[in-house]
Amino acid sequence: MAHAAHGSNYLNAEKGLWSWLTSLDHKRIGILYFISVMSFFLLGGIAALLLRGELFAYNAVDALGKTTGQLLPSADAYNQILTYHGAIMVFMVIIPGIPAILGNIFLPLQIGAKDVAFPKLNLASWYCLMAGASLAMFTMFSTKVDTGWTFYTPYSIKSGTAVTTMVLAAFITGMSSILTGLNFIVTVHKLRCPGMTMWRMPLFVWALYSTAIIQVLATPILAITLLLLAMERTFGVGIFDPKLGGDPVLFQHFFWFYSHPAVYIMILPAMGVISELITTFSKKTIFGYTAIAYSSLGIAAVSFFVWGHHMFVSGQSEFAGIVFSFLTMLVGVPTAIKMFNWVATMYKGSIEFASPMLFALGFLFLFAIGGVTGIMLAVIPVDVHFHDTYFVVAHFHYVMVGGTLMAIMGGFYYWFPKMFGKMYSEFWARMSWVFIFVGFNVTFFPQFILGAMGMPRRYFNYIPAYEPLNRISTMGSWLIAIGFLMALYTIINGLISGAKAPKNPWGSKTLEWEADSPPSVHNFDHEPVVTAGPYEYK
Amino acid sequence: MLLWILQKLTVVMAQADSFMPTQGTEIAKSVDNLYAFLLVISLVSCVIVIGGMIYFAIKYKRKSANDVTAYITHDTRLEILWSVIPLILFLFVFAWGWVIYHDMRTMPKDALEIHVTGKQWAWTAEYKNGVKSTEVVVPVGRDVRLILAAEDVLHSFYVPSFRLKQDAVPGRYTNLWFHADKLGDFHVFCAEYCGTQHSGMITKLRVVTQEEFDQWLTTESEVSTLPMAQRGAKIFQTRACASCHSVDSPAVKVGPSVYKLFGDTNVELLDGTKVTADENYIRESILNSQAKIVKGFGPRSAMPAFQGQLSEVEVTALIEYIKGLK
User: Fold this and answer.
1) B163, closest residue in chain A (CA to CA)
2) How far is A442 from chain B (nearest CA, A)?
3) Chain A partners of B300 at a C-beta cutoff of 8 Å?
4) How far is residue B301's CA from residue B288's CA, in Å, rounded to a whole number?
5) Class of domain B112-218
6) B residues 7-46 near A, CB within 8 Å?
7) Please, what is the average pLDDT of chain A?
C-alpha cells in the first residue's frame, strides 16, 4: 500500500461504506464506535427528556380530585422509558464510551503501536455491540421492557414484557466489553514500542489497562446472571423465584457483583482522560504519576468487594452490611488521592482555558460533589434513608454524567484535531460547555434535596411537596439538551469547515501527537523510540 | 423563567430546615446529626478541592505560550498526608454509622408486633387480634416492630420521617422497629420499584395516643366481624359520610340523600343525563365524586375523593349498607 503517498491517512486510504464495515484499523473501528455510541446517546437522551417532561407536567391529583396534567400516556409508558434510558445509557453509552472510542483510537498511538493486538477481535467486538443494540432496539417494537435496567427479580420474572430478549441483548453487549478488555490487556503487554516501559505509559493507558482487567473479570458474572434469569423465565428453573425455592436477593448479589465494578469500568477511563487534559493544559508534568497509576489498580482490585453497599436494606445480614460499608470507605481513598493529585498538578502551571480543559475543570467540580455524596451513601444509617431516593439518582448522575460524560466531551474535543485533522470552533465548544455544565447542576443538584426530603426514585407521580424542585430539575434538562445540540453543531461544523489541524495543536508531550493529523494507516512512519516519561514539560 | 426560578428558590430556601422531613423518632435525630456532620466535612472538602482548583486556575492562568512551569513530580510527605487524613475521616464516619446502625437494627424486646405485607400496589398491616388495615396505626411512645413480607415482587417500606427503610422480600421475613415520639400522620412510600403503580403505593403511618390506639383496635376488630351492611353503617359513621348525606329521609344535608337511592333508575345529573344508581354508580361516586354530579349540586362536588382511602372490602360494605336504606 502506498502509505507514504502524500496526504494519505486512515480516513481516506480506502473509500466506501464496505471498507469501513470491514476495516481492521483500530482508528476506523474507533470511529464506527463513535457514530454508534453517539446515536445511542441521542436515544437515551430523548428518553431522559421525556422522563423529566413527565415529572414537570406533575400528574398529581388536586384537592378536588382532578388530574392536573400528564405528558406520557400512562405510568407503564414512564416505566418503560425509564428502563430504556437506563439500559441504553449504561450498557451502550457509558460503558463502551471512553474505552471503545477514545481508547481504541489512542491506546495504540500512545504506546507507539501500529494497532491493537487482535484487530479482527476488535472489529468483532463492534459487531457484538451492534448486535446487542439491535436486539435491544427490537424490544422497543415488541413489548417494551418495564423492569428498570437492574432487572431485579422476581419482578423481571413476572413481567409480561420482552425481558428475555432484552437480557440477551445485554449479554451480547457484555461480550463486546470482554473482547475489548482482552484486546487492551494484550496490547499493553505485548505491543509497546522500544523504550515504552510500563512506568512510562501515559496515565490514560494505565486507566484503560485497569479498566480492561475489570471488564474481563467482572463481565462474565453479569453474563451468567442474565442467562440464569433468561433460563428462569423460559424454563422455570428456580434460581431466583421463591415460589420455586429460589432467592430474589441472590440475584441482587450476582447483579451488583458485576455492576459495582462496572461503575469503575465507567469512571476509570474518564480519570485517565482527565490526567491527560490537566497535564497538557497546565503545561506541567503530572503530580504523583506512580500514585495515580497504583490508585487505578487499587480501585480495580477493591471494586470487586464493595457490591453489598447497594443492598443495605435488601435483607442481607447486618454484619455483611457493616463489612461492605467499611470496604467502601477504603475504595474512597484512592479516588480522593487522584483528586488531590490533579489539583496539585495545576500548581505553578501555565493554565490555558481551552474547551477540553474547561471540561476537565468541570469534571473536578462535579466529581468532587459526586465523591463526597458517595461517602455519605456508604455510611449505613444515612444510606437507609437515602437508598432508592433521588439522592442516589443525583449522586450517580454526578459521577456518571458529571464525571464520565464530561471526560468524554473533554477528551473528544482534545483529540478531535488528531482524529479528523481539523480544528473546531473554540467559541461553540466553550458555549456547549457552559450550557452542559450549568444545565447539569440545575438538573441534578435539586435532586439531592428531593432525596433528602424523601422522594423515592422511579416515581411516575409524587406528592405536592416535591413539585417546585422537580420543575427546576426539568428546566435544567432543557439546558443540557441545548448544550449537546451545540456540541453536535461544533463537531459537524468542524468536520465540514474546520481549519487544518497541525500535528500537535496543544503542545502535548504524549506519543500520539507525533503522528500526523489525521494519522496514516500505520500510525507512525518509523517505529518511535521512547526515552522519557509521558509528561516531560521541562 | 429566571424570575420564576429565583422566586421558587426563595420559597425552597425558606423551607430549608425541612429538607429532611420531620424527625419522628430519636433515631431520626441521631441520623440527622451524623448527616449534618457529613454535610459539613463534605462542604469543607469541596471548598478545599474546588477552591484550590479555582485559585490555581486563576493564579496560574497562561500568560504567554512560552510560560515556564515548575517541574514537580511528587511529594511523598504531602501524598501520605492526603491519603491518611481522608482515610481517618472515612473510618470515623464509618464507625459513627455503625453505632447508629446497631441501634437501628437491634430489635427491642416486648415490642408491639405488626405484620405488614406488600403486594402490588398496597400495604396491609395485620394486628394480633386479626384487624387488617391499609394504614399502619401505631401508639406513640412505644416500641413497635414491623414484620415485613411481600406477596408478589420486592417492595420497600419507607418512612422518611423515621429515616427508616426496609425491603419486603417474597419468600422471607424482614423487619424493622421504631419508637415514635411524635403524634401525627407520616408518609409511607414504596421505595423498591414494583411495576405500574409503584409511585401510587403510598399509605399513612398514623401515630396516635395509646387510648386512641386501643379504641381503634377494638372498633376495627368489632367492625371486621359484623355482617356486611352493619360494617358499612360503621364506616358510614367513622368516615363522616353521615354529616353530609341523610339516610332516613330524602332531605338534603350538604350532599344528596342516600335514602332509597339504590336502584333508582332516574338519577338526574348536572348535564341533564339520567343514570341508574347501581353498584358501579355508587362505587364511582364514592371513589371519584367529581365523575357524576347530581343536578342541584356543584358545579364541583365538595366531597373528597376516597380513591386509595378505602379498601375494596370497605367500599363493598358501604354499598351493601346503602342498598338496605329503604
Assistant:
1) A385
2) 10
3) 64
4) 10
5) mainly beta
6) 8-9, 11-12, 18-21, 27, 30-31, 34-35, 38-39, 41-42, 45-46
7) 92
- B262 min Cα distance to partner chain A (Å): 24
Which residue is it, cell 496515565? A203
Chosen for mutation from A153, A384, A437 (greatest number of chain B CBs closer than 10 Å) is A384
Is the predicted pLDDT of residue A481 greater than 60, yes or no? yes
Q: Which residues of A touch B11 (CB under 8 A)?
A: 468
Query: What is the pLDDT confidence band of residue B223, given thresholds at 50, 70 and 90?
Result: confident
A136-187 confidence digits (pLDDT tens): 999 888 888 999 999 998 999 888 888 999 999 999 999 999 999 999 999 9
CB pairs A-B closer than 8 Å: 284
pLDDT number for residue B1: 61
Residue from the list A322, A350, A475 with its beta carbon closest to the beta carbon of B62: A350
What is the ipTM metric for this complex? 0.90
d(CA B4, CA A234): 53
Asked if A25 and A119 touch (Cβ cutoff 8 Å), the reply is: yes
CATH architecture designation of domain B227-323: Orthogonal Bundle (1.10)
CATH of segment(s) A24-514: 1.20.210.10
Mean residue pLDDT across chain B: 88
Contact A333, A303 (CB under 8 A): no
Residues of A in contact with B27 (CB under 8 A): 381
What is the tens place of the pLDDT at every residue in B167-186? 999 999 999 999 999 999 99
**B122 pairs with which residues across the strands?**
B119
Where along chain A do its domains lie?
A: 24-514
Q: Is B274 helix (H, G, I), strand (E, B) or coil?
A: strand
- Taking the domains of chain B in order of start, what are their residue ranges? 20-47+76-106, 112-218, 227-323
Residues A38, A44, A49, A52: what is their CA dihedral angle, to the nearest 10 degrees? -140
